Amino acid sequence: MIPMIVILALLVAFLLWLIGIYNSLVRLRNAVKNAWSQIDVQLKRRHDLIPNLVETAKGYMQHERGTLENVTKARNLAAQASGVGDQAKAESGLNQALSSFFVVVENYPDLKANQNFLALQEELTSTENKISFARQAYNDAAMQFNNKIEMFPSNIVAGVFSFKQAEFFEIEEAAERAVPKVSFS
Fold it and tell me: In terms of DSSP H, where are the helices of 59-152?
């Protein structure tokens, strides 16, 4: 009788342990999904701002049609991207197009002084900061989830229940990793 109770107690303890690990994996996976949705919200906001920015600039930048088209094209590609890797690559292309756009804007003092344009530019800058914070939160959640999947003994449970590692939202372009050069000359 006592051996049966001990075996039953060990079985219950094992099941509770298994349930605990499984639930923590689900919680971490959901945290990754939530963090990704926060990035998605900010990217949508960014994608919605860009057409307004381009429209405002069109009147001033008649000779820069290619630059405006590149921004619009990059924005459309980024809006249609799916998955973390594709989204990161598309956003990198959009960042490059926007950088070129703002370099060209420097040649148009009237545009730089336009209140509408300045407000849109400020909102875009604010959104860029929010994207950066959301990307950091996502990568932190992905790292915690991936660590749990890889560490013993939770890696066994993760393997049995087919938990897959989360992909990091990483910068692809080497130019974006470079430290900006500041010159006061």
Answer: 65-80, 84-105, 109-113, 115-150
Question: How many whole angstroms separate alpha carbon 146 and alpha carbon 14?
Answer: 23
Asked if 113 contacts 31 with a C-beta cutoff of 8 angstroms, the reply is no
C-alpha 46/C-alpha 123 separation (Å) is 9
Domain boundaries, the chain: 2-60+109-177
Residue 85, Cα to own-chain centre: how many angstroms? Answer: 10
pLDDT, tens only, 105-117? 888 888 878 888 8
Amino acid letter at 48? Answer: D
- Residue 184 reports pLDDT greater than 50: no
Q: Which residue has the tokens 């370099």?
A: 103
Exposure class string for 44-70: b at 16+ Cβ within 10 A, else e: eebbebbeebbebbeebbeebeebbeb
What CATH class has 2-60+109-177? mainly alpha
- Using a 10 angstrom Cβ sphere, with 0-12 exposed, 13-18 middle and 19 or more buried, the burial of residue 184 is exposed
CA 125 to CA 142: how far, in whole Å? 26
Tokens 């930048």, located at residue:
61
Model pTM greater than 0.90? no
